[in-house]
Write a structure and sequence with these properties.
It is a single chain. The chain is mainly alpha-helical. It folds into 2 domains: about 55 residues; about 60 residues. The chain is built from 6 helices and no strands. The longest helix has 25 residues. About 0% of the residues are buried.
């Protein structure tokens, strides 16, 4: 239950801001230009700042897990080279082989790291 409450505490404020923004746009208080500028500001200023603040407040020595890092590196390498080998047979055009491999290689290890903060 605590995981559910944590998830709601994270997602509900974002959802609420989205709903308020949609309502304000529907009644004409926000125009397209403002929405474009605000989106650019959020993605280029506030979100990077928040990410930096959260990461900077973490004591790496307390949360660093070498076994997890090695696990991610080994699994990613195995997946990459396995898919690369399969792509030799499945993809005839060499110019798209890289895109094919990148679409299959798992990138979820970065998601697991979000639990740090």
């Amino acid at each position: 239950m605590s995981d559910f409450i944590f998830s709601v505490n994270v997602t509900f404020p974002i959802f609420l801001v989205m709903v308020i923004g949609w309502v304000l746009h529907q009644i004409g208080m926000l125009d397209e230009h403002f929405v474009t500028v605000a989106n650019r500001f959020n993605f280029k200023v506030t979100l990077p700042f928040m990410l930096f603040r959260d990461i900077a407040s973490v004591e790496i020595s307390k949360v660093f897990d070498l076994k997890f890092v090695l696990y991610c590196a080994i699994v990613s390498s195995i997946c990459f080279w396995g898919i690369w080998g399969i792509s030799k047979f499945a993809v005839k055009d060499d110019s798209i082989r890289g895109a094919f491999v990148q679409s299959f290689v798992p990138k979820q290890c970065s998601r697991y790291g979000n639990g740090i903060y």
